[in-house]
């Protein structure tokens, strides 16, 4: 397809109402703009900086809400997993299994995700180069699954900042996998003194536009009707009612990139 | 103006014929594509890694060739300077004085450049953040000259690589100055064992397209009919006959960015 | 104790004979130099870059060899774990559970390790600052276990290099935990094109001496009689017969650091 | 000589009384501890972040004070220079010419410093690797002067931090030049929003001790009786009355390093 695809939704399943509100808005906007959409939410946050942060409402609840929303809106859905056991459990509910950046080198997790037969989306570790991600793609293919997506989400740049290296888009595409730019997490400001990751949401447009220009196949954007009240990652989520205007720009840009 | 502007030319004045060959090609292409063009070449290379590298044919020669080409093609011209004395000398020949990245914090050089009344283009040091470049712009304005351009050219990322942080484009624009992406030097691979800086010319398009998408006002691209034989920076210059195709794409992208 | 302690051994359990050969040598040298010793080996390599690298001989075999060597030499032993299930299994065999750097943010793994009641040694992620490691220590303490060690092993510095930031030694000590310098993995050269991590073993002495001077409580050094033939991490292990001379220097340095 | 040498003094010549107070204290302490001492102060600050920062009292004044103090205390003296003209001027007053880190690649400045016949101390640029500094040493030697010192002062690590890579000590020593650790500037926190560089003076001891352990030939420490009132670099200077205790520790450490 000529257009880019979009993986979007709230950071975490806060409630069924919240997922359905966001899903309805996203489905309508993406249909109008001919953007293939995947609905995303985490059902469990396993790697919060601090043990006192919110981690989810229980696995079955979150996965069930996500599946129900996918059926309701006719959309594929995705979530992130953190162990071999979660791979099998989540595969009963979602279409794409996302491997978190910190875990992209855990061979057994990649194998378990691959064996489910679902699409596997591996996020590039903050400590890895783009070209090295071909070894992650190779592990999944060696396990008999060639449905791999690779996602850029920034690289360690000093302690309290990430930098997006756009060279990683063509470099990861050399693996043969489509490449997604995770706009939300690329803007994280890690290692803050208070144990809560910071952000720069006013730069969401810059990161997304540069990604489309550099040839990204998809974008990942977390969004919420009221980021300031979100239970996780509020510092970087895009306010839901700002998404449509941004996507219009990006569709126009994409058309210019692919030519014709 | 709606289009981006282009600063382009060979890395160093190799000969009058070479500058005129490149200038003629650039002038024709940019006229056709309505891209405002500034012709660029260095007349002296003052900071080569190794003392045995080529540094130029003599100041008067190089400056004279550049001025002559500017007059011939009806183009503004630019070159880089390295000392207060050079600021005054070069100002007699060129329209824009470029401050090298390594020297962007040298107050007296900035002041001397500012006092010539010429446009001053300060390249961001590899060790500076985008927001810090406002202090460079402020120094020039405090010296009575508000014709400032700021140029992104990559940031230190380990020892043998640079990374382009596209957040620096909006961050530097907050200073009020137009921002240029130096595509050529952003791709340098510094600190190579042999004392000659390396490069990645196949990524020129990626760097340039992301810059236009992120809102850069101008691009800086060194070009040469035969980069492999160039006397400096051959590892990163774009082959002259590849420029037109790239610029066509960039013009289309720019139109999508500015909308309308 | 006034002296530093040493965690040492081969990268992976290659065979019982190999572990006993290394253990015998280490035990004799450390006894002579009054260095408290912990014998270390991995029984499973879960995060090799490439799926074709050696990952171990089976969990029970490796853990059994390690336990047997600990009993034989009268030494505490340690190994690294990668999942909640491994935490419980390994705790039956070893005295210290080591959390790999990539996994230092996985809350459930930290909790599972903590609940075993064993000492938990968390390696600082290449993407984390020293001060942020207090959140890892806090997670373990919140799970009811205050026997925490934190280990420095280098921080992402461009794609193909790590840098050791010695400020992390006092910064991590502010958490109240003893701090170990992992000399071996600090020298890794990640993201190499061939999928095999490189190294700089000639710098082992520099890294270790600076750590003792900066006040590290312990050192972690992988060693092998013939690193070139080792089944993992051969690029960075210290040749076994070079260890004694280095430790003599380090003991002298430690005495000068603690004074008296 | 078996001991390390020390380059120390205030950041900038504030007044004759200030330089003599600091010089008297340093001379007495270093004599007692058998540390070869070089008295340092800048007479002009040419690269302050912001144009509104203090830059000095005039060249002749500062150089004269420094020379007078050197004669009075029987000490060699050093200052930093920023142009070819300054090289010749300062050489009439001081024994060692220091090349600032930002300027370490300016070939004509290195040549001018070399031609004075004075010792030339080149600080490693924040954007250079240790091994690359051999090209700076080679430039000076090629100009007929083999009295070269190289100084480590930290490397760009994100935008607002520097990291000291202790591998650079042996790597720069491979050039044949003695290597100094600039403890003061290694702790800078550049690119602060307010345009004034920050610091971490409580880490001075950690940086200095690790440097001696890693084999540094000399240390560079700026010191002031009242850093909070200093006219430049107050954020990183060591309080004068804390220096003696630190040097005692360092002398003990050095003895342990060189053995015997």
Can you put this structure into words, describing what you see?
The structure is a homotetramer. The first copy, chain A, is of the alpha/beta class and about 260 residues long. Chain A is about 35% helix and about 15% strand. The first copy, chain A, has nine helices and eleven strands. Chain A has helices spanning about 15-35, 60-75, 85-90, 105-115, 135-140, 170-175, 185, 205-215, 245-260; strands at about 5-10, 35-40, 75-80, 95-100, 120-125, 150, 155, 160-165, 180, 220-225, 240. The longest helix of chain A is centred in the first third of the chain and has 18 residues, at about 15-35. Chains in contact: A-B, A-C, A-D, B-C, B-D, C-D. At the A-D interface, loops of A face loops of D.
Strand content of chain A: 15-25%
Poorly predicted runs of chain A are none
Quick one: biggest sheet of chain A? 8 strands, parallel, barrel
Q: Give the SSE string of chain A.
A: EHEHEHEHEHEEEHEHHEEH
Counted by DSSP, the helix tally of chain A is 9
Query: What pair of chains forms the biggest interface?
Result: A-C, 35 and 35 residues
> Radius of gyration of chain A, Cα only, in angstroms?
17 Å
Structural class of chain A: alpha/beta
Q: Give the CA-CA distance, first to last residue of chain A.
A: 14 Å
Residue-averaged pLDDT of chain A: 93
Assembly level: homotetramer
Silhouette of chain A: globular
Strand order of the largest sheet of chain A: 1-2-3-4-5-6-9-10
Number of strands of chain A: 11
The share of residues in helices of chain A is 25-40%
């Amino acid at each position: 397809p000529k257009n880019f695809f979009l993986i979007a939704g709230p950071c975490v399943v806060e409630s069924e109402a919240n997922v359905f509100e966001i899903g309805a808005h996203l489905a309508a906007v993406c249909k109008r703009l001919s953007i293939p959409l995947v609905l995303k939410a985490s059902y469990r946050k396993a790697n919060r900086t601090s043990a006192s942060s919110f981690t989810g409402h229980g696995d079955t609840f979150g996965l069930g809400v996500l599946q129900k929303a996918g059926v309701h809106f006719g959309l594929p859905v995705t979530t992130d997993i953190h162990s071999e056991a979660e791979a099998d459990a989540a595969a009963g509910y979602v279409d794409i299994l996302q491997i978190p950046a910190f875990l992209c080198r855990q061979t057994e997790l990649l194998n378990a995700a691959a064996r489910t037969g679902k699409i596997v989306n591996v996020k590039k570790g903050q400590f890895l180069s783009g070209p090295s991600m071909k070894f992650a793609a190779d592990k999944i293919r060696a396990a008999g699954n060639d449905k791999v997506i690779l996602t850029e989400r920034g690289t360690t740049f000093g302690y309290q900042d990430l930098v997006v290296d756009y060279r990683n888009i063509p470099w990861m595409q050399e693996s043969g996998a489509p490449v997604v730019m995770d706009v939300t997490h690329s803007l994280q400001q890690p290692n803050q003194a208070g144990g809560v990751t910071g952000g720069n949401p006013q730069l969401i447009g810059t990161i997304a536009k540069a990604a489309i220009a550099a040839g990204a196949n998809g974008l990942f954007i977390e969004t919420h009707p009221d980021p300031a009240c979100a239970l996780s990652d509020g510092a970087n989520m895009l306010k839901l009612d700002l998404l449509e205007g941004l996507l219009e720009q990006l569709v126009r840009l994409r058309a210019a990139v692919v030519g014709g």
